[in-house]
Design a protein that fits this description.
56% helix; 19 helices; Chorismate Mutase Domain, subunit A; mainly alpha; 462 residues; two-stranded antiparallel sheet; Dna Ligase, domain 1; two-stranded antiparallel ribbon; single chain
């Protein structure tokens, strides 16, 4: 039996006799559609004539350009190809022209022979019993074609069920392309038509599905609209998050072992695989909102987030790195300190300039966020005794940069570290409003410190 929807490869495999049989089959189908089209066009023209007579009775103009424009808009909503909208417009413009001409001729005949009025006919009387049977048969044929095309099973190769994922924000076209490429559906066009009929273009839900073998297009859409699915958890890698906080999120939301996640962040084999020359993955996890399924391996999570950092690190940033005389881990370390110092993005380049100035002058950085990190990344108000903690991350004791980043800085902080502001500031202190004041010498810095202390006393007094 010759199957429907032959592609080129299938046709090439057919014998000459089979090709000729297929040609005759499709020519018969065209002849059938032509008979239906002629029949429908004549019925449409009769309805147009009746409308013309009604308009005359109501003293309304027979020509209505707005109505014809609405017709063109409406019919294009039902166009699923292969006719283009322009082609369909041309066809219908000709149909409307001929209907208008016939309507006009019939209207003139009616006006010229007003004394011999025809018996009134209702719109329902335009159809004879035979006409009704033909139309009903036609619609049954259409219904049968729809049922055969969209409700019969589609089978894919391999074991069942297939795990299929629709990502958040993924378009219907991308979803259909993926289904077709994986062999789950045999026709992208039929899937799009089925989605249009069921409203699936607006109703499919993201998640991970188990697709059994033998689903029809309609059944597959019903699965994506209301079927059982696994929904990924949202992991918020916010600017300034450290690996300990991330491990806590992964344990809470996808049941990863937090201690194993932290251990993996220091794993030398993974760091080498990810092309990271640093003590840990800290600093290389670009902040963003990510989605992961339950029990996703921690290595897969870290790989995906690090891969987003690779996309962010453009060629221009790599070129800029050569001009800074610092390696990537060092720049990210500065960015992480900037992220820890302020929540005001507009200050980032100025703060970056302060730290570069201190490094160039051989001064200690004396950055509070590094001391916080030395205390296992747990934030608390620092006291003088906290500044004596023995750790390579304590920049009050050690010169230069700490061994690596102290958190995962956001894009703004990273850009500030790559492009610091040029100035002479080497000190800064909070001003009480969430921002900082900057000084280029110690004497001015002490004045700013005193101003801040006075502000603090006033706040306590109030």
């Amino acid at each position: 039996m010759i199957r429907k929807n032959k592609n080129k490869r299938d046709l090439d495999s057919l014998s000459k006799a089979e090709k000729e049989a297929l040609l005759r089959k499709y020519r018969k189908r065209i002849d059938f559609f032509d008979r239906i089209l002629v029949y429908i066009l004549n019925k449409r023209t009769k309805a147009a004539v009746m409308i013309g007579r009604i308009k005359i009775a109501l003293n309304q103009p027979t020509y209505n350009p707005e109505r014809e424009r609405d017709v063109l808009i409406r019919i294009n909503k039902h166009n699923h190809g292969p006719l283009t909208s322009e082609s369909l417009d041309h066809i219908y413009e000709r149909i409307l022209d001929e209907s208008r001409a016939t309507q006009k001729a019939e209207s003139h005949k009616l006006l010229n022979n007003s004394e011999n009025r025809e018996k009134k006919k209702s719109i329902g009387e335009l159809l004879t019993k035979r006409d009704k049977y033909i139309i009903i048969a036609f619609f049954f044929v259409v219904l049968a074609i729809l049922c055969y095309s969209f409700m019969t099973p589609n089978y894919y190769k391999g074991s069942s069920p297939v795990v299929f994922e629709i990502k958040k924000g993924q378009t219907l076209n991308n979803t259909i392309d993926s289904l077709y490429n994986r062999g789950i559906i045999p026709s992208k066009r039929n899937m799009r038509i089925a989605a249009f009929l069921l409203g699936g273009n607006r109703s499919i839900k993201f998640g991970r599905y188990r697709v059994p073998n033998g689903l029809s297009y309609f059944s597959l859409l019903e699965l994506f609209i209301a079927g059982k699915r696994e929904v990924p958890a949202m992991i918020d890698v916010f600017p300034g998050i450290n690996i300990y906080q991330l491990a806590g999120q992964l344990q809470q939301k996808i049941h990863a072992d937090s201690s194993e996640v932290v251990k993996l962040c220091f794993d030398k084999k993974l760091l080498h695989f990810l092309d990271i020359d640093a003590p840990s993955i800290e600093g290389y996890l670009i902040p963003d909102v990510y989605y992961f399924y339950d029990n996703t391996p921690a290595s897969e999570v870290l790989y995906k987030i690090k891969n987003e950092f690779n996309k962010f690190l453009s060629d221009s940033l790599k070129l800029r790195l050569k001009n800074l005389n610092y390696n990537l881990t060092q720049v990210l370390t500065i960015a992480s300190i900037i992220e820890g110092e302020s929540s005001k993005i507009e200050e980032y380049p100025t703060i970056a300039g302060v730290y570069y100035n201190r490094l160039n002058r051989g001064m200690k950085l004396q950055a509070d966020p590094t001391v916080q990190y030395a205390h296992m990344g747990k934030w608390h108000r620092l006291l003088n005794r906290d500044l004596t903690i023995q750790s390579p991350y304590n920049t009050y004791l050690h010169y230069g940069l700490p061994p690596g980043p102290i958190n995962n800085p956001g894009r703004s902080a990273i850009m500030a570290a790559f492009y610091p502001a040029k100035h002479n500031y080497i000190y800064f202190v909070a001003d009480g409003s969430g921002k900082h004041k900057f000084a280029s010498n110690y004497e001015d810095h002490l004045k700013l410190v005193q101003q801040y202390r006075t502000w603090m006393k006033n706040q306590i007094a109030e």
